[in-house]
Amino acid sequence: MTDTITIRTPDDWHLHLRDGAMLRAVAPETARHFARAIIMPNLVPPVVTGADAAAYRDRILAALPEGSGFTPLMTLYLTEDTDPADLAQAHADGLITAVKLYPAGATTNSASGVTNFDKVRPVLETMADIGCPLCVHGEVVDSDIDIFDREAVFIERVLDPIRRATPGLRVVMEHITTIQGVEYASEGGPELGATITTHHLVINRNHILAGGIKPHYYCLPVAKREEHRLALRRAATSGDPTFFLGTDSAPHTDANKLLPCGCAGCFTATNTLSILAEVFEQDGALDRLESFTSLNGPKFYRLPPNDSTITLTKGDPVSYPDHIDTGDGPVTVFDPLMPLHWQVST
Ligand code: NCD
Ligand code: ZN
Prior knowledge:
Number of strands: 13
Oligomer: single chain
Radius of gyration: 19 Å
Bound molecules: N-carbamoyl-L-aspartate, zinc ion
């Protein structure tokens, strides 16, 4: 029986760190186990210019524990007014790693996102020229499209046309949740990648809705049917370099989750690696955990994998706090509803 596994230090290719007191509380949770993370720009107001990204990066670095080697990989929030020259300069300076596309209204703090995709065409062409990846929140926002169909419809109506119109644009389908997402990503060639969250490997829509509503399992894109979860498990554990970890750890205070109109987001930074080791072991794929957490992402982003390693050890069930305290109030840690036996020991 395998009871220890050593892998290159993981990276998180989709992370929300927020700002202020929340940033100071959640940044150490990720920095404990991860070397780098792609930092989402959906602050209020959003991170739209190179100067915004530089200032936010400094606030993140200041929030890290003393001696932490964690590197935030910054992104810009694409708006219809994004200046291609500012973006290209920020990319050339190494200040940003990617740009994030939110369809306006698709999710938390996405009001400044894109409504008319023709308006961002020049920016996307610049990005293709300079090799700056586009991270995409892949859901349409049309009120007549069922929320469970919004990812599949986005692929057909928005993503595929954008990719055809912009050859050479490197795209990450963020937090895919459907069979259609898995299939489209796996057929997209080396210029297309896809992140998968920890929680979408564990929950389906019944966990949110059956037997009483569970706000802490509500996130966007919303978890789908079991057959979709199983397709995500197969993709994540396959070793296919298209798929890599983006936790989408998205902290909201309990006060903001437990409302008549509660916020979307699951906070998984604290226990993600224990959950992933359990999932990969259940699927007989522990030998492919490293590909998913530590190798496929750097390969897509054309960065070297981390030199350092972490070791996970299997033993008696590990317990994690059910919430972390922040200056803004408690944030509930994602409950995977199963005992976790693996923990990071180094
Ligand atoms: C994210 C957030 O809270 O910022 N929420 C979520 O449910 N994932 C936004 C996002 O990534 O969609
Ligand atoms: Zn997110």
